[in-house]
Amino acid sequence: MFDWLETILKKIRKMDGSIDKYKKDTVIQSLPSLAYVNRAKKLIEGGYLKEAENVLNSALNLPQEDALVYKYLGIVAEKTGRKSDAIVAYKKAAKINPHDKDIWRQLGFVLVSVNFAEEAAECFENANKITPLNTDVYTGWGMSLLKLKKLNEAHEKFVQASKIDKYNFMAMLLSAIVEIKTGQYDDAEMKLKFLASVSPNESNTYEYAHLKYLKEDFEGAIHYAKKALTYNSMMLPAYVLLGEIYYKLKDEKNSLAAYNQAFQKELINEELYREWGTALQVFEKYDEAQEKFQKVLDVSPNRMEAKSGMALCLAFRGEVDGAFEILNSLSEEDKKYYLAQKAFGFAEYHSGNFSKAVDYFKEILKTESYDSKILYYIAKSYLALDNEVLAKEYFEKSARENPSHIPTYLDYADFLISKGEYADCQRKLRKILRGNEDNTEILNKLFYVGYILVKENVCEYNVKETLAIADKIVSINSDDFKYPNEKNELSDMLNKL
Questions:
Q1: Which of 127, 315, 325, 495 suits 182 as a labelling partner, its CA being 20 to 30 A distant?
Q2: Which pTM value belongs to this model?
Q3: Mean pLDDT of the chain
């Protein structure tokens, strides 16, 4: 009969326990402060941030300090871009009520955004102690650990966040980024491929493009970088990535166009100028490259990449003393980096110190084996040192690595001609001629080699073929043709056949 009464009493006892816990874990809010906070919340939701801040500041005059007032002052400060004020407000709130998980969480995210990573990690740890297994807390915690370069710990937090909420795509993206940093490309690709399909946006698509680039799938990288720009045409990293991909592919036009597009959209920072300068240097536009590196140095005078790039430009322009002055100002640690080593190598080369240049160049090849320009200059250095065997070896390597590098083939041709290896020279010149059919410098060398071979083996076909090369040069620009006497000799020879 009295079962119902017993049930009610049990509920009351349970409620009493909950109330005791609430009193213990939180600060009881007075009605006046709650009224201010509720009014401010409505104003924040409506976008009336200044009005909300005024209401909350009024609440500060109340006798009892309220953590919620400071919490919402922090929210307003954050929304208006005043992160320092937000941090002060959140810290005040956390001091008054250290049992509010959301205060620690919000404070943690602001601290991460201003690179106070260690303090941020402590905030997320505090939040986790209050309410464990929160996906946002684990995500923020991972972000702070990532900033601290604690990659394994960060990855663990991101994975945990994803387990708690499989729709936490941010945590999944960040775990993929860590996997890229640690060389786990296949694991990262599974995640990024999934994100690019189910949650296509600029960040997911860009990171997938970046991974494709690292895996040397340049076609895929270009596709996804361009796709990222369809989501956000103002995404600077995508333009920079495209510029870098294209200069790796030796595509000068598209590489420089990508950087210029970013510039036209006023997406200007150190990274743009640094990478733009690097591309211009690769394409041997040293004056323009120097200008871009100077833009970086105006902001960051000690930036190693820009200083090395500037030194490299000066070396190629013959200003060797200026190049060495910059390079010698680098720290001993910075001098070990690839870019600095490259600049030192070319400065030594243009100073005529070919042995030293070779030493620098070979050190570079330990990490940058693809750099055909380095191979080319090693060949030229050995040629200057009268080491013909090694000169030929490195001309071959350079031509193989970059079959479209005209200077390699032209200098190699001169070397082969000097050694009387005319047939091999002809094969090399015909190869580089493909795609460069109107290059009169190549055509002139090809004509001369053909002329020598005709004299060794006279036949009508060879004579006609060689004369056709001469005619093509004349049709392009008669002033460019260097062998009129040899042409006349071949014409006379043809008439006698």
A1: 127
A2: 0.78
A3: 91
